[in-house]
Specification:
By secondary structure, the protein is an alpha+beta fold. It has two domains: about 130 residues, Gcn5-related N-acetyltransferase (GNAT) (Aminopeptidase, 3-Layer(aba) Sandwich); about 160 residues, 3-Layer(aba) Sandwich (Aminopeptidase), CATH 3.40.630.30. It has ten helices and 17 strands. It has an eleven-stranded mixed beta sheet, with helices on both faces. The chain has a four-stranded antiparallel beta sheet with strand order 1-3-4-7, sandwiched between helices. Strands 15-16 form a two-stranded antiparallel ribbon. A hairpin with a 2-residue loop joins strand 5 and strand 6. Helix 3 packs across helix 4. The two termini are about 15 Å apart.
Length: about 325
């Protein structure tokens, strides 16, 4: 590849915070997860290696990243997080950005780049120049998670079974509303994950409260209750185009009453009825190789269909 010397790379420093956040806001594919206040809430777990790219003094691209020994990841604490680009980004410019980035990573002793591409549903404008650059550099697809997404442009109906379950749920006098009681809800999430999979949630209740406090317009908890007792809920990560279900859980009693159906129906047909996409999250494990068929069929019963979240690996050893 021909190295474009007009592109200059710098490592992120706190002095760039305002410029970083403003670029995310104005970008083609940036979301609130890329703001520094989100990236840095778990800075004790990840060694930041974020990059900024300038051309003739103008910021043209950024990449949230961390470093783990000789591996750079974009970013280990995020579901996705590749190159963030602005309206001025073109395919040829992206190739120059990659050339400069890979040269610098090699000079810094990085031998492997794990690149988590940003799914198209989060794009404000087409922004897949990075996928072409990955292809030219022989990047290898190492992981593909399947998520389930409802598109308002072509919304499919609930299945008959889901309609019946919803009618039953509505007969139980459930109340669905937004709440800030993250400790109670995360206890439900933790109990459900431990019982079904023997694992704990990625986030603690304290972390969810912290993040929701920092991003109250983006991180919201909706729950179903009866007689003041929380039964089911969904934490939603809201971006301009997507309402993404980060945690979906229910108690045994909530399951018996169909409380989760009640929550989902309110989210899909009232609160987020005008959002271009509603994303239920992934139904895969083992780096995408194992599909939880029961889980994905449940999500698809609401009319959702597949969106993939891809991870690539670039070997930088000479």
């Amino acid at each position: 590849m021909n190295l474009d010397c007009s592109v200059r790379l710098v490592r992120y420093e706190p002095k760039y915070k305002a410029q970083w956040d403003e670029f995310v806001l104005q970008s083609k594919n940036g979301v609130f997860l890329f703001y520094r206040d989100y990236l840095e809430y778990h800075s004790d777990r990840f060694s930041d290696f974020s990059l900024l790219f300038f051309q003739e003094g103008q910021l043209v691209a950024m990449m949230p990243a961390n470093r783990d020994d000789d591996t750079a990841v974009s970013h280990g604490g995020l579901t996705f997080g590749g190159i963030i680009s602005g309206a001025q980004m073109t395919t040829t410019l992206m190739l120059s950005v990659f050339d400069v980035m890979l040269r610098e990573l090699r000079m810094q002793g990085v031998t492997k780049l794990i690149y988590k591409s940003i799914p198209h549903i989060y794009h404000a404008a087409p922004a897949e120049e990075d996928l072409y650059a990955l292809f030219l550099h022989n990047a290898r697809l190492i992981r593909r998670d399947v998520s389930s997404t409802i598109s308002r442009g072509r919304k499919f109906a609930y299945t008959e079974e889901r309609e019946a379950a919803l009618r039953q749920a509505k007969s139980h006098g459930l109340t669905v509303e937004q709440t800030s009681d993250f400790p109670q809800y995360m206890a439900i999430v933790a109990a459900g994950l431990k019982a079904r999979y023997g694992v704990l949630p990625v986030h603690t209740a304290a972390e969810m409260e912290l993040l929701a406090g920092r991003f109250p317009e983006n991180i919201k908890l909706f729950a179903a209750s009866r007689d003041g007792k929380m039964l089911s809920g969904v934490i939603v990560y809201e971006t301009a185009n997507v309402a993404h279900a980060q945690y979906i859980s229910t108690t045994p009693k909530g399951r018996a009453l169909g409380a989760l159906d009640a929550v989902m129906d309110v989210l899909l047909n009232e609160i987020y009825c005008d959002k271009p996409y509603f994303d239920f999250g992934k139904s895969t494990a083992e780096n995408g190789r194992s599909l939880n068929s029961g889980l994905i069929e449940n999500k698809e019963s609401y009319g959702a269909r597949a969106t993939v979240y891809d991870f690539y690996e670039l070997n930088l050893e000479m």
